[in-house]
Amino acid sequence: MALTARVRVEPMTLGDVAAVHEIERLSFATPWPAHAFEQELRGNRLARYVVARAGEQVVGFAGLWLMVDEGHVTTFGVHPDWRRQGIGRQLLLNLAELSIAIGARRMTLEVRVSNEAAQALYRGFGFDLAGRRARYYTDDGEDALVMTTPALDDPRMREILATERERLTR
Ligand SMILES: CC(C)(COP(=O)(O)OP(=O)(O)OC[C@H]1O[C@@H](n2cnc3c(N)ncnc32)[C@H](O)[C@@H]1OP(=O)(O)O)[C@@H](O)C(=O)NCCC(=O)NCCS
Question: How many A from CA of 26 to the centre of ligand 1?
């Protein structure tokens, strides 16, 4: 059984915020403060946040804003002890399905130019380079790459999503 078959992706609750914040802290030089997640969960009707759970443990999380006709990935992380086991892909599949469910045409995100791991994950998921935002990250002035999927109903995306769904059942 694939490990990810034992990892469930579920809506994030306020009770998950401490564990999510800990993964953020382990993953980013400037993590979102815990109250930012609380505000998003309580007050942002355009936001969707999910966690990946192995048993009761939160091992990853991801967020999406539904902006006009696109799903914009806002934040995304997997606990260092659980990386390279397909959980990032599983979270991204869930965000893609949320985007499709609300009628978004495509998905988009920003990623640090130095973040090759995340870029490799996104490219494998159909995201292509769409642009660059100079000094996007205010903590250290690093540029962001903008990456965007083809239309979510494009044959290439359908095939990627079908492969990812199939991977979870293996
Ligand atoms: C990026 C991140 C979410 C990936 O999560 P993950 O669960 O390890 O990803 P997966 O196991 O699903 O990896 C899927 C594919 O992405 C690519 N990938 C993931 N990590 C990689 C790495 N360190 N180096 C190169 N490629 C990598 C590979 O193609 C991988 O497939 P493979 O394992 O079959 O080779 C995780 O590394 C992380 O939390 N990083 C810190 C936070 C972060 O950068 N978030 C994104 C902000 S934009």
Answer: 14
